[in-house]
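Reviewers of the previous submission asked for a worked example of the structure-prediction workflow described in the proposal, so we include one complete record here. The input consisted solely of the amino acid sequence. No template or homolog information was supplied to the procedure at any stage.
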Amino acid sequence: MTSSKSRRECSDKSLLLARKYRSEGKVARAFAHYLVHWHLGIGNNQHSSPCSIEEISQVLRELSSTLAAQDRISDLISTYQQAIDVLPLNEDNNYQLAHLYIKQGLNCQAIKLLDTCVGLKCKNLNNTVKSNVLPRWHFAMLNDTKRNEAFDKALAQVIRPQDKVIDIGTGSGILALFAAKARPQKVLACEVSKELVEIAKSSTQNHPCIQIIHSLSTHLKNDDGPFDVLVTETFDAGLFGEHVLETLDHAWKNLLHTQSKVVPSKAKVYIALGTCPKLYQSHRLCKARIGNLTFDNRHFSSIQKENYDCHKKIKPEDILSDVNTLLEVDFQDSAAIEECLKSTLDFHHQLKVQKKGQADCIVMWFELYLTESIYIATGPQNPDSCWNPAVFVLDAALQVEANDQIQSHFQLQSSFRLVSVQHNKAARIDNPKASYHLPTSMIQKINYFENQTTDETMKNVKTILDLTDLPLQSLNWMKNDSSLELTMYLNNVLDDDDDFSTKTKLDLVTDFATQNGISLEQINGISSIQALQNDEPFDLIVFDPILPNGRLNSTQLMEISQYRRFCRRGILTNPHKCTLWVALIESEELVRSHRVMSKEFESLNSLSCHHLQNLRLDEFQFKTLSQAINIHHFQFQHPDPNADHHDLPLESEWSREEFEVAIEHAGRVDAILYWFEIVKSPCNTMSSFKTYDSLMIDKAAFLLDTPIAVDPVTKNDFLTIEFAYEDFLIDLSVTE
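From that input alone, the workflow returned the following structure tokens.
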């Protein structure tokens, strides 16, 4: 009894001191006493007058704001760690601490913290950081059986007992494990990713000859004596994109001796003229009008960090010309590697067209010779390879006939670049009056844009707030109605690309408006929705509720919901609403692209994501096993235009629902595919479309942790889909 009384008294005293210090502006001292108060009382019913969660949370926000302003990051991290110890059920603290970890490069700590959370904000952040830590191609690479067997066999032939081996860019450690089978004296494996270093250490811990280090190989010196064998798989779709030439040049000068062996020993690079209309429409403008808008002699190309893109589904029938060998490089020849780096190499090749078609790209692929007799082939003839072909999109598509001659000019300086393509029969293209480099999502939007006809909802519209990444629809309306005024949102580049600036967007809209006789005086911009005044006189809000990656545009939808609370009655939205559709699918290819199948490296699955995005249905094989059902309506506009907007919920509260879905085919449920039906206007039944059929918007899915076998005849007639929702974030799972 005495002990309980003492704890209660101490708890109450701490609360009094906490409130006293807070009133004096001594937030750090106040927070410390709040922690003591909760630590002594919570779970033991010791509070006589406990403070609320909101009270201590408010003090935490005040303290964190002060520490952040002073750039005291370590103190800020310590503060949130203490808060989580005392208030473990408040996941907002986990979310804030995880963000701090990520900013400090402590991704593993962030993932470990978020893995314990069930809230959708935390799960969404966890998915994001895992994707950034481990690019998804790692899973396809580790599941590429032919690749793995080839490296295993080659290293067994090359490595001799007592050899010293260096594995550059070890990743998960798979090549180091193959090397260890040959019983070398030592395998030094270097990796630049801290997260992968930990995974590699775990997977190789039973092999004492393997040493994993966190370093670039170019930072190493030959302190341990030269290595006898170098193995690396630091190749991308264009072969040299991961700086393998620089890596090998440094190794030959600092880490190897004249008789050292390199695996792979050489590579052959091939090129051919190809056709890939969908990829072309993501990188180049393919139309002369955008609805009612006209534009003359403008060139649009995509912003690319590399000189090429890659595409998984380039098929043999997509190749239009003969195949030319562009380059054969010997990785055993140190002088040849140095020469490749020292000067720019030019390659001029004539490609003879074999069949008629639209030539819009040059396709590049390669063969890696691990030894003289063991090689890995990529390219259109090997669709199961973890390497996708590199695709160089042409500035303008060419209509070609059999036996036409196409001249190509490539340069190599660390990586390949397509300099020019010439077709003698092609008409000369005038220099454009203006050139724009845009995110691929914007180019797709222009190419696939369908003008929305004016209906009853537009009769009384005079002012438009457009939050889309490019206000094409609003400009079309303005061309038809010169009285309309447009305010566009400037700070919403969906691709997060530093090369696309507000100035570029303004220049593009100004150019479109000027060419089409739209007064620039009726167009202005804002940099944030929060900057708008209460009761801003807009008649219509236009926005994109779905991101190009297939997911809800949750950040913008929350902003719109908050802003709408302050708008006058009768404000319209476009779109009017959207519906969430789901179906259960089987897809081994999808699973193998996002999860390691080997028991040896299943620890890598701790970095697997369950919420998948950027899925293109033509790029992986799948089978639909269930009916498609709609499970939720997102209502953006109140059904009654005269109603108070406070009557329409912000849809920010946590909700969970269950739906039964009928099984139609036997198989194994691997994922829940989802898409949206978007209704543009309540007055036009033809204004809706499903993103399932859209070429502009990819699809998304939730991967099941454990597949479920189904059979509508003998096993399952129905499964239950559980739908969780909060702040325009969703989560889907399946139960039997």
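The radius of gyration is 30 Å. We consider this example representative of the routine output the project will generate in years two and three.
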